[in-house]
Amino acid sequence: MSENGKSTNLARWQAVYWAAAAAMLPVSPLLFLQGQYTRRKVGLLPEAAGPKTGTVGDAGEAARLLVIGESTVAGLGARTHREALAGQFAERLATRTGRQVEWTVVGRNGVTARRTIDELLPMVPDTEFDHILLGIGGNDVMKLSSPKKWRRDMLELLGILRRRNPDAVIFISNCPMIVYSPVIPQPIKFLLWELSKMHDANIREFSASLERVHYYPQPVDVALDGFFADGIHPSEQGYSDWAEAMIRYFDTRHRW
Fold it and tell me: Does the pTM exceed 0.85?
């Protein structure tokens, strides 16, 4: 698609975003109270315990993997990072590449793409990584980031990661599957799901032309049995299933 076509899509998404915001204004106090009630009802899971670095696999020269992002990277819903997204993805990466994988986690609950730039990038070790998994998008949906802001912040974040890791393959996890959450009530679920689908279409478009950047689009066949720890964050089984699904998808897009 031409750059002009991309601009047209972004302008359309932005117009839809502001139209929806205007339509929601009369009921925004109700939506706010509903959101606060849901947060209290669900509570907050602790981040995964244990070391934020590890090694999997036992063959070949070690590849370095950085996993950076929001609550799923921080491992909410898992006992340790080995059972959370970082460890599960690293295991599958080691299998696919036939190399040992040294993984590093830099995650924090609640961060958006903007906050990842400001708060997490300064915490990343001063080394070049071979692979990067960026777990981001949930809070840009929950905090109602506009399509223009989402694209601007993500392109800045990806640009910084690329400059620091010129040879790395960058993988990006899907925007959140709000529609499958059993604890988010209507009408908030509907509104957040529409925004999440919009962010998904947006990142599919702007990442398509980026070299060695692969986005995992919102899946259509999620196995829900045992997936959630709290109705929002994955369980250990959920992290395992999610990591496997992403690797299978990336298999079709990337030559290891």
Answer: yes
